[in-house]
Amino acid sequence: MQAAQYQQWLRDTRRFWDVPTESEARFDRVCSSLEIGATDDPEALEHIWQRQTEDAVRQITDGIPVGADWRCVEIGCGVGRLMKAMAPRVACVIGVDLSPRMLDFARDYLADVPNVELHLNDGRSLDMVRDASIDFVYSHLAFQHITLYEVVDAYLADIARVLKPGGYCRIQNWREGPIPAVERAKNMARSLLGREILRSNRCWQWREGKCVRFGGVTFTPRQWRRRLRRFGLQAIRTQLGLGHEYWMWTTSRAKGAHRRA
Ligand SMILES: C[S@@+](CC[C@H](N)C(=O)[O-])C[C@H]1O[C@@H](n2cnc3c(N)ncnc32)[C@H](O)[C@@H]1O
User: Which structural domains are found in the chain, ordered by start?
Assistant: First the structure.
């Protein structure tokens, strides 16, 4: 990936996530939905936040034999709501995020949780995590915003590096949705020419200082499984939907001795 392109991507991405207030971080960036938009009542907002967090944790851990001795990593941890829910169930949770502001809020939000670590990263790597030291990597509402294939690939390579043999990975991302006819035609042409089909109509777009589009690159389930495999991650379960029509949830395992059934 070209350095200038990556730097521009990092600037744009941080610009979107670095919001000034905790309330904006929680109810505009991390959780946003029609029912959140429809109320200003703090109690109602807390209630929705709790319910959405419980739903998310259920989906993240669905089918994963989470153990009390597990070391976990969350990619794109935001203010740390999922880490807070995961921490009592495992030995430790390491949260990484590219947004300095989100991590400021997370430090407050997790102040009374002892077994968590927070790290600012470069948006594409897990440099602070040792090789083969992690039982479970998960990511929710972060990959769907990554607009460069190279960044996704860099993460997949690092996830494979940090997972113990047989360790688990569960990622929510965005499956390929309807794309404009002209993009479809271009994809078909590329395919006929033997070039990779993966081109997305999604990208960061700013108008008058406001971000008007922020969807990340998308994959068909088959393309995604193939990509995981290329980095040594064996997909064992793919689920479509579960929260949003275009969401895709994939559980995969690192190659090597499967320590647990
Ligand atoms: C919608 S929030 C979700 C936070 C958390 N996963 C949750 O569900 O509560 C997305 C978070 O991912 C972070 N993020 C987005 N792209 C990222 C990337 N490439 N690397 C690291 N963090 C990223 C953002 O800064 C933001 O804090």
Answer: 3-59+67-178+220-254 (3.40.50.150)
